[in-house]
Amino acid sequence: MDQALAVQILVVPVIAIAVAAVARRMGWSSPLVLVLVGLVLSPLVPGYQLDPNLILLVFLPPLLYSAAIDSSYLRLKAFRSPVALLSIGLVLFTTLVIGWVVHLLMPELPLAAAFALGAIVAPPDAVAAVAVARRLGLPRKVVTILVGESLFNDATALTLYRVAIAAALGHGAATWQAVTFEFARSAVGGVLIGVVLAWILARVLLSLRDALVENTVMLLTPFAVYFVAESVHVSGVISVVIVGLYIGHRMPRAGFGTRLLSDAVWRVMDFFLESIVFVLIGLQMWPIMSALDWDDRWKLTGMALAVFAAAVFARVVWVVPTSYLPGFLARRFRGREPHPVAWQNVAIVSWAGMRGVVSLAAAFAIPLDFEGRPTMLFLTFVVVIGTLLVQGLSFPALIRRLKISNDRELYTDNLAEAAAQQAAASAGLARLEELVAEGVADVHEDIVEQLRSRSERRTLTAWERLGGGTGQEGEETPSTIYRRLRREMLVVEREVFVRFRDERRIEDEVLRRIIHEIDFEEATLERD
To answer: What is the tens place of the pLDDT at every residue in 256-285?
Structure first.
């Protein structure tokens, strides 16, 4: 078997999962640790080079789809202006800035090729930033904006990249008209394909009524959508995101089995793919370095630092004014007083510019005979590694330094949940009383009382959560005591069932069925 193929299939996944498991247990940032491990291991696999098709066809669609399913369509719609300014405006601005910087440093490189490099390193990969943001409790608005940017910025960057590469190869002209037309065609086409496929897939999933089959179809969905869109030369990224947002928005109407299985499937998929992706980034160090001509190493180092600095500061220069400009214009021309943008949030968004594997995949997709390809690969690698390590390592410290938290949002969420639980419980109890009064079934009073008690307990738990889940002076609330005691009961019950299986008093099939019921009850206790 080919060495590179063996690395891709077996060695990289095993190492990635092991390292990610250790990082999670130690509370470290998994993406950063995985990148560092990849850098260390890179000399051991000098012949391995990243296959761009592996990233763009295998890794990118499911990661985008999973992020879209987990995102809020309504929040993205509410924050569409800042998301558009980042995913479209910032990518265009960064492409221009880096393109001109590279052209000044390498005048022998065609301007179109310089802009191609700018498009390659323009889109940040928000996986690492969002992972840190959620763990440290950033406000929901900041997380939504970062997620929205990461969902759509690849489409902008890849479109610009294709236009610039075609112009550099003499297959077209990188004019404003050509770029605008290509972007509009790719984006509008991607949206149309996404909307049509989302409508069709939603009806297909609704007709299946089988959790296992539904989730199998959803596993194939991002690959199929991406292939269909790219085959007609429109943005597969946008199509996948549109389908994911639509399916995710409708997921609460699916069966509970579909939701439970879907959540587990995509959590495993995300962990598996993201772990491999960040190791692959580090593994590219040796093949990229070995392809360079190091006769003028100081010039290469200076160029890499300049491009890295341009990528970092271009984001700051764009984010700061555009964060306040829409509010200023609304107040100036429409007489409205928008909510002020907290400068701490602006600082966080401006520093969350870590690049990822999509940039490296685009760089490796540059034709082998392309002028300046080794240097472009090196500059891309430095920007990706530099932003991941410099910004990634300092990102948690910046969040703590600015003392940003989502405590107020959590309190508001708990209050809204308690009110919703109260209304839902009232509706459920009213329906129960109707059924009993109508004599739909001969119901024993004990059963009715159990149903009332469970509904009331869910409401009580939601209100107790507003007080932090404890009673006065740190005492446990009744709901907390109930969950703790019931979990202890389930532990010993599970042990009894396992002992019966070991003694051949029940079969494995019986044990699995019983354990599944116990697991489901224990899962509800975690949130009940």
So the answer is: 778 878 888 998 998 998 888 888 888 888
What DSSP letter does each residue of 258-288 carry, written as one string?
Answer: HHHHHHHHHHHHHHHHHHHHHHHHHHTHHHH
Domain boundaries, the chain: 3-405, 410-527
Spatial contact of 487 and 519, defined as CB atoms under 8 Å apart: no
Q: How many percent of the chain have pLDDT more than 70?
A: 79
Instruction: Give the C-alpha separation, 491 to 235, whole Å.
Output: 51
CA-to-CA dists, residue 134 to 76, 270, 393, 404, angstroms: 17, 15, 16, 12
Phi and psi torsions of 470, nearest 5°: -130, 160
> In DSSP terms, which residues pair with 470 in a beta bridge?
476
> 504 φ, ψ to 5°?
60, 30
Q: Is the pTM of this model over 0.85?
A: no
**422 burial class (0-12, 13-18, 19+ CB within 10 angstroms)?**
middle
CA 335/CA 176 separation, integer angstroms: 35
Beta bridge mates, 476? 470
In this structure, whether the domain defined by 3-405 belongs to CATH 1.20.1530.20 is answered with yes
**Mean pLDDT, range 37-62, rounded to an integer:** 83
| Neighbouring C-beta atoms of residue 4, cutoff 10 Å | 14
Please name the residues in contact with 91: beta carbons below 8 A apart, sequence gap of 6 or more: 119, 122, 123, 153, 156, 157, 160
DSSP code for 398: H
Q: How many helices and strands (H and E) does the chain possess?
A: 25, 0
Rounded to the nearest 5°, which phi and psi values hold at 476?
-70, 145
Q: How many CB atoms lie within 10 A of CB 179?
A: 20
Strand, helix or coil at 169? Answer: coil
Cα(452)–Cα(432) distance, integer angstroms: 8
Q: How many CB atoms lie within 10 A of CB 314?
A: 22
First to last CA, the chain: 51
**SS3 call for 342:** coil
Q: How many CA atoms lie within 13 A of 29 on its CB side?
A: 23
